[in-house]
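hi! just following up on the protien thing from before. the input was this:
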Amino acid sequence: MVRRGHSVDVYCITHDAALPARETLNGVRIHRSNGSGIYPKPVIPALRRNWSDIVRYSAGVRRLGFGPPHDFYLLNQWPLLHVPALPRWARARSGIHWCEVRTTGPVRVLQKHLPRMVATNFAVGEAVAASIGRESGREFTVLPSGIELARYRSTERSGRSGVLYVGRLAPHKNMPLLVDAFDLAVSQGLEGDLVIAGDGPSRAEVAEYASRSVNASRIQVLGSIDEEQKVDLLSRAAVLGMSSIREGFPRVIAEAMASGLPVVTAAFEENGGKDVVAQYGSGIVCGTQPADFAAALLAANAGWDGFSRAGLVGAQSLDWSGIAATFEAKIRQVVPMQLAEIYN
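and the predicted 3d structure came back as:
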């Protein structure tokens, strides 16, 4: 959006106390609330997030709504409370971007009512749009997890091997399923290593679990990597394994598609990744047991050329330039008429 001439401010909750309260990155002005530093790791784990941070952030969003007006307010789905906190007049020129579907608990109730409080709604994928659209009775525009296509490279199958995971290491990523499936696939002839790249609260547990694998010597747990390393790993792996129980539209699937890398993911109810893979035909959606996942890893290798081509074709629609144009077009429909000329 900045490249297209817009002024963009992002207001977020501080995850890392070492980060500055204000900074500008690639032309985007970042404003971080004065968080506790334990937002993702509350004292009471069952709460999942530190609610004092959520309340403080939501109060800040409300104050923002009474300040100098922005042309449009894009509200991320989380932490939910900030949506009703925004003044009504500001919500009239706002939209929520829904990143995942929850099928139980109070969040499902909010999925029905919050979309009705704003001018428009966006979803990270077709399946998320359809599900929350049915519950709320509102229309949705799909704004997927975008990428810059020029960053990625697709290499020949002959130069690739093994299974790759790239992402945050947390309990819902369900890494034991991927490790167990890899072991079974190796016993059936799968070549190459399993590379797990990323950091998070479960990193130590993942490394310990991998160390007990019968193929521990063929499993690498790398920890954090930079963008250049990620692009390189995506170009050298044969299959991307996504064993998550819960996802929205994982950006790494879009990155894998742009790299010509087939994806295997499991058919968990709240795993939006399965819908992305099915939509683009860029891999295999399998059952949720290790034997199912192992069979899919082998099948993805066997049908590699077709899945790779489908991913590369689908990735063309996921470049940020096209997504930004879709976003602008929707804004034209919902901002007050006197502001519409700004976007023409």
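The two ends are 14 Å apart (CA to CA).
The CA atoms of residues 72 and 252 lie 28 Å apart.
cheers
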